[in-house]
# Entry
Amino acid sequence: MGFFLEILLGGLMACMLYSLVALGFVLIFKASGVFNFAQGAMVLFAALAMARFAEWIPAWTGISHPVLANGLAFIIAGAIMFAVAWLVERLVLRHLVNQEGATLLMATLGIAYFLEGMGQTLFGSNIYKIDVGMPKDPVIAFESTFPGGILINKEDLIAAVIAATLVALLSLFFQKTSTGRALRAVADDHQAAQSIGIPLNRMWVVVWCVAGVVALVAGMIWGSKLGVQFSLSTVALRALPVVILGGLTSVPGAILGGLIIGVGEKMAEVFLGPVMVKMFDLAGGGIENWFAYVLALLFLLVRPEGLFGEKHIDRV
# Structure
């Protein structure tokens, strides 16, 4: 029982990071009706900005306290992501209002390549670290309840708490604030929202800013765990099955999809892997890398709109 709970907890902690990245896709799709292929590049760009400014601030100002330096770097990186959101709306989206979804999709691909190239130009192409003080050593808990206890990675636990808090705050933002309600109106019907005075362009800036903050938090967490490197842009691909399961238009779907994928990956690796190795005489391992995509593909055949997605979505 203890081993099962250990695997379950590991999956639940991983799921929150997947849900966090998936939220970036959902937010922009709800506001503009386009799948944002630039989400991974936004995670990379935000993480690069924070990592580099965390290095530069002590050299420029003499501030040596890591918490203060990282806090200032986070604020500066957040301001940069806000500037990126404003520029994306001003230079790209504003000129593509009422265009086909394929046109907007290609625009996000262009934004992705631009952010990756500009990130390398501004911040360099080496591997950088983000050290926000999260503990790396695992701990053993519930030793008195289960034989041998349950091994918990403290870094994953803290990351999951941060991600869960941000997800909860975003849910409250959409449900309780006037801006959130305006964004929901834009998501339901762009033309109807414009007809009652909701400025579509401003809403796009807001939602890209929110997605930029989500990308920054995700980049900070993944950068702390893996280091900031250009392969970090592929982290968005790990969230695609989450989006498919939950639905491209649903914030709760991103959360539930993350739960299913996070727990499913861990369970498949530990319990399904040995069975497949024995049955098919395989070398073993690697199931965690492809299980989510196979599950999402099978789900597409049954319910392509996702658990909470809409069957018919009007696009800009």
User: Anything to note?
Assistant: The radius of gyration is 20 Å.
